[in-house]
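User: Can you help me understand a structure? I only have the sequence.
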Amino acid sequence: MVGAFVSWSCGKDGALALAEVRSHLAVSGLLTTVTDGVVAMSRVPVARLHAQADALGLALRTVDLPWLCPNEIYEQRIGAALADLRAAGVDELVFGDLFLADIRAYRERSLAGTGLTPRFPLWGRTTDALARDMLAAGLRAVVVCVDPTQAPPEIAGRPFDEALLRDLPPGVDPCGENGEFHTFVTDGPGFAHPLDVETGEPYDRDGFRYVPLRPRGPSTG
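Assistant: Let's start by predicting it. Here is the structure, written out as C-alpha cells:
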C-alpha cells in the first residue's frame, strides 16, 4: 500500500478525509503546523492534537512556526518537514479541502518536486450533503473558533451536529470551508475511543471568537 500522511488541523474535514483513504492507503501520521504551542487558526493546544493522534493510532509531526510567519520561513520549515516525510517512505499527503481552487493550487505547487503526491478525497462534494455524511459516519466535533464577520459568534462551543446545521444562517457554508468556523474532532471513524473534553469560557482575540478546550476531570496536560 502507498504510504501517506494527512495534513491535519484537528477538524472534521481532515478526519473524514483520513477515514476515506485509510482503507487503501497506509496512513502513518498527521502533519500539523503550530504557533506557540497551539494550532494557529483554532488555538487548540498541541496536547489535544496528541490526544487525537493517540486515539487514531498515528504519529503526529508538528512544524513550529513563528507568529506572523514570513513566507520564506514558512516554506523553509514546511519544506524540511516534507523532505523528512519523503525520506521516511511517505508517498502522498492527504488534504481535506473541499472547493477552494486557489488553496488546492497552492497545495499542488507546494508539493511539486518533493516526491509527494497531493490527494483530495473530498474535493467537489456538495458541502450540505457532506456535513451530514460526516454525522452519519459517527464523526463528532465541537466548534472551537468562529469568524464573527461570517458566522454567529454564539456557535462557538457548540457541537457540530444536526441542530447546528439547521441553525446556520443562509450563506454560511455547512462545513465552514470559507473560514466561517473551525472544529475539533472528538470521535469518529478510526478513533479507538472518544476524547472526553470540555469547553471553557469563550473569548475574543484578533477578531475571532475562540473556545478553550481541556480534558474533562483532572488535568492531563
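Now, to help you interpret it: The chain has a mean pLDDT of 94. The two ends are 35 Å apart (CA to CA). Let me know which part you'd like to focus on.
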